[in-house]
Every structure is written in C-alpha cells, then in structure tokens.
Amino acid sequence: MACGTQLSIEARSGQNVLFLFGNNEVTITTDNVLATFSKPTVRSHVTTASAMLAQLGVPLEKLDYLGNMQAGH
Description:
alpha+beta, about 50% helix
C-alpha cells in the first residue's frame, strides 16, 4: 500500500481486502486486517526486538514498549 494522507487512509476504512493463500481466497475488511493481522504482527516484532535489546543489556521499561497511552478507545 502506498503512503497516503490521514484522509485517504480513513477513506479506506471498512473496504474489502482480498487475500490469496495458495488456491484459497479470503475477503475481509481493512479494519479487520488491522485488528487480526497487523497489530499482532507488529506486537510480535516489538516483543522480539525488546528481548534482543534486553539481552544486550539495553535498559528497557514498560513505557518504552507501550508508548503514549490513549484513553477512551
């Protein structure tokens, strides 16, 4: 997906995305892609990177992992 503005990204909310897995086709919405595929994938990569940095002695805290908290969502 090409980079876009916030408006162009929001315009894609709720649209269908077609995934091809071999001979199987799965159609899901863009919102569900984020919730069920992208977020867990990013979380996994961040967890792995954090473990590698901790093993190298980099001092990490929970807020380094969590970032800015957003209330009300």
